[in-house]
Amino acid sequence: MFEAVLLTVITAATPLLIAALGELVVERSGVLNLGVEGMMIMGAVVGFAIANLTGSGALGVIAAIGAGMAMSALFGFLVLVLVANQVATGLALTILGLGLSGMIGEAFIGVPGLRLPELYIPGLSDIPFIGPVFFQQDAIVYLGFALVIAVTYVLFRTRAGLILRSVGDNHGSAHALGYSVIKIRFMAVLFGGACAGLAGAYMSLAYTPQWVENMTAGRGWIALALVVFASWLPLRVVIGAYLFGAVSVLNLHAQALGLGIPSQFLSSLPYIATIAVLVLISANRRLTLVNTPACLGKPFVPDR
Protein backbone atom coordinates (compact mmCIF):
# COMPACT_ATOMS: atom_id res chain seq x y z
CA MET A 1 0.00 0.00 0.00
CA PHE A 2 2.74 2.44 0.97
CA GLU A 3 4.63 1.63 -2.22
CA ALA A 4 1.57 2.46 -4.33
CA VAL A 5 1.07 5.76 -2.48
CA LEU A 6 4.70 6.73 -2.96
CA LEU A 7 4.60 5.92 -6.66
CA THR A 8 1.54 8.11 -7.20
CA VAL A 9 3.13 10.95 -5.22
CA ILE A 10 6.20 10.80 -7.48
CA THR A 11 4.08 10.98 -10.63
CA ALA A 12 1.98 13.84 -9.22
CA ALA A 13 5.02 15.83 -8.05
CA THR A 14 7.16 15.51 -11.20
CA PRO A 15 5.31 18.02 -13.45
CA LEU A 16 5.12 20.51 -10.57
CA LEU A 17 8.85 20.14 -9.89
CA ILE A 18 9.93 20.64 -13.51
CA ALA A 19 7.61 23.57 -14.21
CA ALA A 20 8.56 25.29 -10.94
CA LEU A 21 12.29 24.91 -11.65
CA GLY A 22 11.86 26.62 -15.00
CA GLU A 23 9.88 29.47 -13.49
CA LEU A 24 12.45 29.83 -10.70
CA VAL A 25 15.18 30.54 -13.27
CA VAL A 26 12.89 33.00 -15.07
CA GLU A 27 12.13 34.89 -11.87
CA ARG A 28 15.77 34.84 -10.79
CA SER A 29 16.47 36.84 -13.95
CA GLY A 30 13.88 39.44 -12.88
CA VAL A 31 10.98 38.38 -15.13
CA LEU A 32 7.57 37.33 -13.80
CA ASN A 33 5.88 34.90 -16.20
CA LEU A 34 2.33 34.03 -15.20
CA GLY A 35 1.85 32.04 -18.39
CA VAL A 36 3.18 28.74 -17.02
CA GLU A 37 -0.26 27.14 -17.21
CA GLY A 38 -0.62 28.09 -20.88
CA MET A 39 2.85 26.77 -21.76
CA MET A 40 2.21 23.51 -19.89
CA ILE A 41 -1.09 22.81 -21.63
CA MET A 42 0.47 23.53 -25.03
CA GLY A 43 3.30 21.14 -24.21
CA ALA A 44 0.74 18.51 -23.21
CA VAL A 45 -1.34 18.71 -26.39
CA VAL A 46 1.57 19.04 -28.83
CA GLY A 47 3.51 16.25 -27.12
CA PHE A 48 0.50 13.94 -27.21
CA ALA A 49 -0.31 14.79 -30.84
CA ILE A 50 3.23 14.23 -32.14
CA ALA A 51 3.71 11.05 -30.11
CA ASN A 52 0.39 9.72 -31.42
CA LEU A 53 1.13 10.62 -35.05
CA THR A 54 4.72 9.35 -35.09
CA GLY A 55 4.48 6.52 -32.58
CA SER A 56 7.52 7.92 -30.77
CA GLY A 57 7.32 9.18 -27.21
CA ALA A 58 10.76 10.79 -27.52
CA LEU A 59 9.61 12.88 -30.48
CA GLY A 60 6.52 13.84 -28.51
CA VAL A 61 8.65 15.08 -25.62
CA ILE A 62 10.91 17.08 -27.97
CA ALA A 63 7.88 18.62 -29.68
CA ALA A 64 6.36 19.52 -26.30
CA ILE A 65 9.57 21.29 -25.26
CA GLY A 66 9.52 23.16 -28.58
CA ALA A 67 5.89 24.19 -28.03
CA GLY A 68 6.69 25.52 -24.57
CA MET A 69 9.67 27.46 -25.91
CA ALA A 70 7.59 28.92 -28.75
CA MET A 71 5.00 30.20 -26.27
CA SER A 72 7.73 31.59 -24.02
CA ALA A 73 9.43 33.26 -27.01
CA LEU A 74 6.18 35.09 -27.73
CA PHE A 75 6.00 36.17 -24.10
CA GLY A 76 9.65 37.24 -24.12
CA PHE A 77 9.23 39.32 -27.27
CA LEU A 78 6.21 41.12 -25.83
CA VAL A 79 7.59 41.89 -22.37
CA LEU A 80 11.31 42.29 -23.10
CA VAL A 81 11.35 43.86 -26.55
CA LEU A 82 8.01 45.68 -26.63
CA VAL A 83 8.06 46.22 -22.84
CA ALA A 84 4.47 45.05 -22.38
CA ASN A 85 3.10 44.60 -18.85
CA GLN A 86 4.41 41.28 -17.55
CA VAL A 87 1.36 40.36 -15.47
CA ALA A 88 -1.18 41.10 -18.21
CA THR A 89 0.94 39.37 -20.86
CA GLY A 90 1.39 36.27 -18.72
CA LEU A 91 -2.34 36.01 -18.10
CA ALA A 92 -3.00 36.47 -21.83
CA LEU A 93 -0.48 33.71 -22.60
CA THR A 94 -2.37 31.32 -20.32
CA ILE A 95 -5.71 32.16 -21.94
CA LEU A 96 -4.15 31.74 -25.40
CA GLY A 97 -2.63 28.40 -24.46
CA LEU A 98 -5.87 27.03 -23.03
CA GLY A 99 -7.86 28.07 -26.10
CA LEU A 100 -5.28 26.96 -28.67
CA SER A 101 -4.74 23.61 -26.96
CA GLY A 102 -8.48 22.95 -27.02
CA MET A 103 -8.56 23.59 -30.77
CA ILE A 104 -5.50 21.44 -31.51
CA GLY A 105 -6.55 18.63 -29.20
CA GLU A 106 -10.13 18.34 -30.44
CA ALA A 107 -9.11 15.65 -32.93
CA PHE A 108 -7.33 13.62 -30.22
CA ILE A 109 -10.09 13.39 -27.60
CA GLY A 110 -10.69 9.73 -26.83
CA VAL A 111 -7.65 8.58 -28.81
CA PRO A 112 -5.57 5.95 -26.96
CA GLY A 113 -2.38 7.46 -25.61
CA LEU A 114 1.25 6.40 -25.86
CA ARG A 115 2.83 5.93 -22.44
CA LEU A 116 6.50 6.68 -21.96
CA PRO A 117 8.35 3.45 -21.09
CA GLU A 118 9.66 2.88 -17.60
CA LEU A 119 13.38 2.34 -17.34
CA TYR A 120 14.60 -1.06 -16.19
CA ILE A 121 17.97 -1.41 -14.47
CA PRO A 122 18.93 -5.10 -14.15
CA GLY A 123 19.32 -6.08 -10.53
CA LEU A 124 18.36 -2.73 -9.02
CA SER A 125 14.83 -2.64 -10.47
CA ASP A 126 14.10 -6.08 -8.99
CA ILE A 127 14.78 -5.07 -5.38
CA PRO A 128 11.51 -5.19 -3.41
CA PHE A 129 10.03 -1.72 -2.74
CA ILE A 130 13.28 0.14 -3.49
CA GLY A 131 13.43 -1.12 -7.08
CA PRO A 132 9.98 0.01 -8.29
CA VAL A 133 10.18 3.33 -6.42
CA PHE A 134 13.71 4.45 -7.25
CA PHE A 135 14.89 2.41 -10.24
CA GLN A 136 11.80 1.80 -12.35
CA GLN A 137 10.54 5.26 -13.28
CA ASP A 138 10.32 6.86 -16.72
CA ALA A 139 13.13 9.07 -17.99
CA ILE A 140 11.39 12.39 -17.21
CA VAL A 141 11.30 11.62 -13.47
CA TYR A 142 15.08 11.23 -13.43
CA LEU A 143 15.46 14.25 -15.70
CA GLY A 144 13.56 16.28 -13.11
CA PHE A 145 16.11 15.47 -10.42
CA ALA A 146 18.97 16.10 -12.85
CA LEU A 147 17.47 19.54 -13.49
CA VAL A 148 17.43 20.28 -9.75
CA ILE A 149 21.15 19.50 -9.51
CA ALA A 150 21.98 21.40 -12.71
CA VAL A 151 19.97 24.51 -11.81
CA THR A 152 21.42 24.60 -8.29
CA TYR A 153 24.96 24.25 -9.59
CA VAL A 154 24.62 26.79 -12.38
CA LEU A 155 22.86 29.41 -10.25
CA PHE A 156 25.22 29.28 -7.27
CA ARG A 157 28.48 27.79 -8.53
CA THR A 158 29.08 29.33 -11.96
CA ARG A 159 29.78 32.75 -13.41
CA ALA A 160 26.72 32.44 -15.67
CA GLY A 161 24.52 31.93 -12.62
CA LEU A 162 26.05 34.90 -10.86
CA ILE A 163 25.35 37.09 -13.90
CA LEU A 164 21.76 35.82 -14.11
CA ARG A 165 21.13 36.60 -10.44
CA SER A 166 22.77 40.01 -10.74
CA VAL A 167 20.44 40.86 -13.62
CA GLY A 168 17.48 39.91 -11.45
CA ASP A 169 18.74 41.87 -8.46
CA ASN A 170 19.94 45.04 -10.21
CA HIS A 171 19.47 45.18 -13.96
CA GLY A 172 20.79 48.76 -14.13
CA SER A 173 24.15 47.83 -12.65
CA ALA A 174 24.38 44.69 -14.80
CA HIS A 175 23.75 46.80 -17.90
CA ALA A 176 26.38 49.34 -16.80
CA LEU A 177 28.91 46.50 -16.52
CA GLY A 178 28.27 45.58 -20.14
CA TYR A 179 25.89 42.62 -19.78
CA SER A 180 22.98 42.31 -22.20
CA VAL A 181 20.03 42.30 -19.81
CA ILE A 182 17.46 41.62 -22.55
CA LYS A 183 19.43 38.70 -23.98
CA ILE A 184 20.04 37.10 -20.59
CA ARG A 185 16.40 37.44 -19.61
CA PHE A 186 15.22 36.12 -22.96
CA MET A 187 17.38 32.99 -22.55
CA ALA A 188 15.98 32.48 -19.06
CA VAL A 189 12.42 32.83 -20.37
CA LEU A 190 13.13 30.25 -23.08
CA PHE A 191 14.48 27.85 -20.46
CA GLY A 192 11.33 28.34 -18.38
CA GLY A 193 9.19 27.61 -21.46
CA ALA A 194 11.17 24.44 -22.20
CA CYS A 195 10.62 23.20 -18.63
CA ALA A 196 6.90 24.03 -18.78
CA GLY A 197 6.58 22.18 -22.09
CA LEU A 198 8.40 19.17 -20.64
CA ALA A 199 6.08 19.21 -17.63
CA GLY A 200 3.11 19.27 -20.00
CA ALA A 201 4.52 16.31 -21.95
CA TYR A 202 4.77 14.37 -18.70
CA MET A 203 1.09 15.05 -18.04
CA SER A 204 -0.12 13.61 -21.36
CA LEU A 205 2.50 10.91 -21.91
CA ALA A 206 3.17 9.54 -18.43
CA TYR A 207 0.85 10.84 -15.70
CA THR A 208 -2.35 10.19 -17.68
CA PRO A 209 -1.39 9.03 -21.20
CA GLN A 210 -4.31 10.58 -23.02
CA TRP A 211 -5.49 14.01 -24.08
CA VAL A 212 -8.16 15.70 -21.99
CA GLU A 213 -8.97 19.38 -22.43
CA ASN A 214 -7.59 21.54 -19.58
CA MET A 215 -5.79 18.47 -18.21
CA THR A 216 -3.15 20.57 -16.43
CA ALA A 217 -5.98 21.66 -14.08
CA GLY A 218 -4.19 24.63 -12.51
CA ARG A 219 -0.82 22.93 -12.00
CA GLY A 220 0.90 25.87 -13.67
CA TRP A 221 -0.46 28.18 -10.97
CA ILE A 222 0.67 25.75 -8.26
CA ALA A 223 4.16 25.76 -9.83
CA LEU A 224 4.18 29.56 -9.57
CA ALA A 225 3.25 29.34 -5.90
CA LEU A 226 5.98 26.73 -5.34
CA VAL A 227 8.65 29.20 -6.43
CA VAL A 228 7.55 31.62 -3.71
CA PHE A 229 7.13 28.75 -1.22
CA ALA A 230 10.72 27.69 -1.93
CA SER A 231 12.07 31.25 -1.52
CA TRP A 232 13.59 30.98 -5.00
CA LEU A 233 15.87 28.08 -3.96
CA PRO A 234 15.89 24.94 -6.17
CA LEU A 235 16.32 22.36 -3.38
CA ARG A 236 13.30 23.72 -1.53
CA VAL A 237 11.28 23.36 -4.74
CA VAL A 238 11.76 19.59 -4.45
CA ILE A 239 10.27 19.59 -0.94
CA GLY A 240 7.36 21.79 -1.99
CA ALA A 241 6.63 19.76 -5.12
CA TYR A 242 6.43 16.50 -3.20
CA LEU A 243 4.31 18.03 -0.46
CA PHE A 244 1.85 19.37 -3.01
CA GLY A 245 2.05 16.09 -4.92
CA ALA A 246 1.11 14.19 -1.78
CA VAL A 247 -1.84 16.48 -1.17
CA SER A 248 -3.06 16.12 -4.76
CA VAL A 249 -3.15 12.29 -4.63
CA LEU A 250 -4.83 12.23 -1.23
CA ASN A 251 -8.18 12.24 -3.02
CA LEU A 252 -7.56 8.95 -4.78
CA HIS A 253 -6.34 7.05 -1.76
CA ALA A 254 -8.98 8.46 0.59
CA GLN A 255 -11.68 7.21 -1.76
CA ALA A 256 -9.98 3.81 -2.03
CA LEU A 257 -9.97 3.53 1.78
CA GLY A 258 -13.63 4.53 1.95
CA LEU A 259 -13.10 7.36 4.44
CA GLY A 260 -16.33 9.06 3.41
CA ILE A 261 -14.77 12.49 2.88
CA PRO A 262 -16.47 14.37 0.00
CA SER A 263 -14.39 13.98 -3.17
CA GLN A 264 -15.02 17.64 -4.06
CA PHE A 265 -13.30 18.74 -0.86
CA LEU A 266 -10.33 16.42 -1.43
CA SER A 267 -9.98 17.63 -5.03
CA SER A 268 -9.77 21.22 -3.81
CA LEU A 269 -7.06 20.49 -1.24
CA PRO A 270 -4.05 21.31 -3.49
CA TYR A 271 -5.51 24.75 -4.21
CA ILE A 272 -6.47 25.34 -0.58
CA ALA A 273 -2.91 24.42 0.39
CA THR A 274 -1.57 26.83 -2.24
CA ILE A 275 -3.63 29.71 -0.86
CA ALA A 276 -2.69 28.85 2.73
CA VAL A 277 1.03 28.78 1.91
CA LEU A 278 0.87 32.12 0.08
CA VAL A 279 -1.02 33.73 2.97
CA LEU A 280 1.51 32.46 5.53
CA ILE A 281 4.46 33.64 3.45
CA SER A 282 2.90 37.03 2.79
CA ALA A 283 2.22 37.53 6.51
CA ASN A 284 5.95 37.27 7.23
CA ARG A 285 7.65 40.22 5.56
CA ARG A 286 11.16 39.01 6.36
CA LEU A 287 10.41 35.63 4.77
CA THR A 288 8.90 37.36 1.75
CA LEU A 289 12.06 39.39 1.13
CA VAL A 290 14.47 36.46 1.51
CA ASN A 291 16.08 35.70 -1.87
CA THR A 292 13.41 37.69 -3.72
CA PRO A 293 14.98 39.18 -6.88
CA ALA A 294 14.89 42.95 -6.34
CA CYS A 295 13.96 43.66 -9.97
CA LEU A 296 11.31 40.95 -10.24
CA GLY A 297 8.56 42.14 -12.58
CA LYS A 298 10.26 45.47 -13.30
CA PRO A 299 10.68 46.31 -17.01
CA PHE A 300 14.10 47.22 -18.36
CA VAL A 301 14.65 49.65 -21.23
CA PRO A 302 18.31 50.32 -22.11
CA ASP A 303 19.55 53.90 -22.14
CA ARG A 304 16.36 55.51 -20.98
From TrEMBL:
InterPro entries: ABC_transp_permease
Keywords: Cell membrane, Membrane, Transmembrane, Transmembrane helix
Residue spans crossing the bilayer: 6-26, 31-51, 57-84, 91-114, 134-156, 186-208, 220-244, 265-283
Protein name, as recorded: Nucleoside ABC transporter membrane protein
Lineage, broadest ranks: Bacteria, Pseudomonadati, Pseudomonadota, Alphaproteobacteria, Hyphomicrobiales
CDD domains from the UniProt entry: TM_PBP1_transp_TpRbsC_like
Phosphoprotein among keywords: no
Membrane topology of the entry: Multi-pass membrane protein
Main location: membrane
Record localization: Cell membrane
